[in-house]
Amino acid sequence: MPYAVEIEKLTKIFRPKRGIRRWFASSSLSHDIKVLDDVTLCVQTGEVFGLLGPNGAGKTTLLKILSTLIRPDRGSVRILGYDLVRDENRIKERIGMVYPDERSFYWRLSGRENLCFFGSLLNLSAKEIDRRIRELSSFMNMGDFLDDRYDAYSTGMKQRLLLARAMLREPEVLLMDEPTRGLDPSMAESLLKEICSLASNKQTTVLMVTHSLSEAKKFCSRIGVLSQGRLVCEGRMEDLKASFLDASRYCFYITSLDTKVLSEMQRLPWVTDIQWSNGSDKIKLDLTIQDPEANLSKVMDLLRENGSMIVRMEAGESDIKTIFARATGREAG
What we know:
Alpha-Beta Plaits; alpha/beta; single chain
């Protein structure tokens, strides 16, 4: 499958102006700041790629470069085969951007009037604008509030309008900076499902910055982690687990736990951590198991053979947090 976004050895340095250097000579404000450092990354057509990283890692700067808002200092970027510097206008015609900035809308206009205005800035005809608004209203369930004034919108409505504006020109590449910020979990999941639908049905390429590890794990086909301006890892979750994890966490909800079974588990060399707690009607057993593909079934057999009925088992939700922590040297929030 061809690449929609190709980034090679991308570097961006923010240099303070001469006056700032003079007035803040003894502080960090007087020094050059390398925000992106030799970043190389490719995103496939129709892929939903999640970009993670701590605050100040360079994620938003990378999106601004890809959306032609700022120029890199070194390296190259090609979007849909077009060079970022030489073919800037061709790229602008083919990308959509979603930034969490509600101030860019006109608060006294309705959502529909706002979309009409921004559609005209994109040189779309009135007929084309009307068609796209009808399609987007249906696709994103905006019919109930599209004709209300923007200043009456909830956070979720505003986020949907941001996405609708980015989709007016049917972009081939969608760049999104924290699209679910401020949304409750159910609204965030609904919005991300719509974004994934765009990727699968229309082959729209999505590059999404997020601070939500669970969102990245659930909705992104691949993820990358930026730390101090460098891309410290990228790939599918399965590949990153293989690189950063030598064990997996599993939680068993069981009816009983015999001390003999517990002692036997503690002697197993591939069970590296055991924690348990008593609930009202079930026992929660947390295990860290090395090479779970080979050993998980052995643990389950051991429990069953000794009368512990497994009511439910959950795979370790902490995997992506561990990857983030080990890749960046920081604990994930």
